[in-house]
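_Full entry_
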Amino acid sequence: MSAANHLYQEVILDHNRKPRNFGKLVDASHQAEGLNPLCGDHLWVYLRLKDTQVEAIGFEGQSCAICKASASMMTHAVKGKSVADAKALAQEFRDMALGRLDTDSGEHHLGRLEVFAGVRDLPTRVKCAILPWHTLHAALNSLAQASTEGEADPVPGSGVEQA
């Protein structure tokens, strides 16, 4: 097993066992529901925006380890960022997971989220990793739902919607 794969597994397991920002945000100003019917991932993302900044974020639901770890790391990464930076980070994450962003040669702001770069080699898991980001995108755009399938798929064929 390569060092990158080992790190990927450790991060997934850690965030699955101890998800950060897990739970409903009672005073959320924005929220959205996300569904990945292929895996059964079902989660809600809650945001409290103050001016143009993500002041607080939380998530809850039932999902596989990859989806929960992605949601946990997403909440950590976007808390305190501007809405514009959160949207840009969501786009970079989805591009990375879909193989559209080469993290080795392209400029990006993913930081620790780069451990998910290997998911692009696991097509059945890509939608698990990007569902929280689709749901964040929906919440930021005041959409009630996001999905990795059908008409609620923000970007048909990839599970991502463009704003």
The chain has a mean pLDDT of 89.
